[in-house]
Amino acid sequence: MRPWIVWWCALLLSLGAQASVAEPACHQATEIRQAERTVLRAGQVLDQSTVAPEDALAFAWRRQGTQIRYRMQLDTCPAGADWGLWVFRMGGPYRAWIDGKPVQPIDPVALAGSQAYNGRIPALFLLPPGARELVIEIVDLVYAGSGLIRVSVGPQVALLENRALSQRVIMDLNNVSSTMIGMAGVLAMLVWFYRRQDRAALWFALACLAWALRGVAYQRFSYPFSPLLIEQLNPWLVLIASCGLSASWLHGFQGATPKRLRAIASICIAISLAFVVSLVLGQGAQLVRSLAFACGFVVLLSVLVFLLQRWRQGELSPGLLALGLGALLAGALHDMGMVIGYASPANWAFLNVGFTLLLLSHVVVVSIFQIKQLNRAEHTNAELERNIQAKTLELEQSYAMLRASERASARAQERAWLNREIHDGVGAQLITALRGVERGTLSKERVAQTLQEGLDELRLLMDAGDLGQSLHRALATWRNRWDSRLEAIGLGLRWEVGNDLEQLELGSNATLQVMRVLQEAVTNTVKHAEAQHITVRAWIDSGPHRSLVLEVCDDGQGLTAVRPSSGGRGLRHMAQRAETLGGTVSVDNAASGGVRVLLRLPLSGAASQAWEAQPLTE
């Protein structure tokens, strides 16, 4: 066989072998292993070199106003129509171009080239057919220790598998935790709204809301305005959340001394002003950012020491919070390592996971506190019920003793009153009759009259005691008793008692004195007037001075003929009885003839206080 034939056969076999090896690689995702890096500041080239992914950046380059550009050749396989570009992570906000044209984001969806993209968010871009050169430029402040972290090209189907994993682990976890933290902040704010004195709930709500807002900004893929402003918002919110958590726990465990609170407030105000100054001057953004993270870490670390001290004193809740805070600080140390450079920037961030664990520990502590409060409230309620029952029993016993004492006092007063009235009234009349009989100076008719008067007085006493304060009932009883007596002697009784007296209640003594005036006036008429009719009227005068009026009139001989001496004993007794009640009695001739006795008692004012007392018996 000729040599040239052998040479051509070997060449064809080698090309076939290469094709068989290369062809499968074009159907798989390929990670870019090399890029040309150019560092620029103010149009001046600071460095130009060839680097591999996770390239370490000099600290001097991680300043505001520095652009870091990576140029990568896409010559592994000819790009097909379904190829894509997967950027797992970059060290700062970036823009990307393919062969000089802005690259089109597929997932997350965004406009091509009009905005800078968040380097923390894994993104899938469309790779046009025949693409040869990829340029990615970090357009502003670098927040990681490396610029180019991981970039892959290949079929979109293959890249979507990586994208799906990153979506679940990085974005979904952040979204869920941010939502939970935001809801916890809203609930804590509601607690504070109804319990304004609960400062711990207020500061915890502000911390959660700040952290939830940070999560929203952290997951923003395309920046609607200055990337630097969004990036500086992240550390500022971390600082606010750290200070809020610290103030909340200090208030919750009685450690919120004015000195500690002033220190926390001073740190927040100073760093916030530093952020504003750096944005206005366009310098110092990296320094202020680092100070914010460092101050937040130091504040939380000092609170961790405080919680551990309380835990050593035997309290469980500070220990649980210290455990959650330790998880947060551990996550912060890991993520700070990604920024500083001692941890790979391709690792997952654990700060949000740490805050979620902290929130969980806080929920456990709040639940323990609520359970303790419920147990304490139940114990307090039971003890309060026992105390109420004991006090109720004591009050019932005291009321029983008081009622017994009042009844005994009422009985004593009633006995004294009856004794006095019997002695002064019935007793005096009986003694008079007895002495007259003994001396033989009283006739049989006079003795009978005296006994009748004593019996009438005794009945008045009995009526006043039985009928109590009701003058209307006492008058009705007197009328029933006297109607037949007056009719028997030929004296007609005209009775005019107003219905308004039904609601009038007097004391037993006042009722008795009114009835005595009535009986004295009628008795005088029976004895001396030689009248044919007698009129009894009673009503309430509702004039300027509300008063009770009792009027007794007859059509007899008149005052001059009947009683030549106006100072008779009966008239004096009526006047005295009226005076004891604060009233007046007038006796004069009626205009139509006969005598009119008029009793007027005040029903209001100081004059009525002596007889408007409660009844003597229950």
Spell out the blueprint of helices and strands.
Blueprint: H1 3-25, E1 30-31, E2 35-41, E3 44-51, E4 66-73, E5 83-90, E6 94-98, E7 101-102, E8 104-107, E9 123-126, E10 133-138, E11 148-155, H2 156-194, H3 199-218, H4 227-252, H5 258-281, H6 285-312, H7 316-340, H8 351-439, H9 444-467, H10 471-488, E12 492-497, H11 508-529, E13 533-541, E14 547-554, H12 559-562, H13 569-580, E15 584-589, E16 595-602
Parallel strand pairs: 12-13
Antiparallel strand pairs: 1-11, 2-3, 2-4, 4-10, 5-9, 5-11, 6-7, 6-10, 8-9, 13-14, 14-16, 15-16
In a few lines, what is going on in this structure?
With 618 residues, the protein is of the alpha+beta class.
